[in-house]
Design goal:
With about 80 residues, the protein is an alpha+beta fold. The protein has one domain. Helix content is about 45%, strand content about 15%. It has 3 helices and 2 strands. A two-stranded antiparallel sheet has the order 1-2. Strand 1 and strand 2 form a beta hairpin. The chain is extended and about 55 Å long.
Amino acid sequence: MLADLLYELVQIPGPSGHEGRVAARMEAALQPYVERRYSHSPCEVVDVRDAAAAARILVGALPHIFASAEDRPSRAKEAPPPA
């Protein structure tokens, strides 16, 4: 579903400064999933769904976002032991 939407969006002509058709299609596609939509400018549209849950998730993630590099879990795989 997401891949199909992305494919559809990149097929719509929308050169820099003329992204209106792309934005309109994106807004239409996301409308069923949002509770509230607001915009500060034509270039910025914010969709909100269940803002209370989103705030809890963000607050829960903040310690991980702002942790120092030493405190973050490593994503690198450990090297296998020498044979």
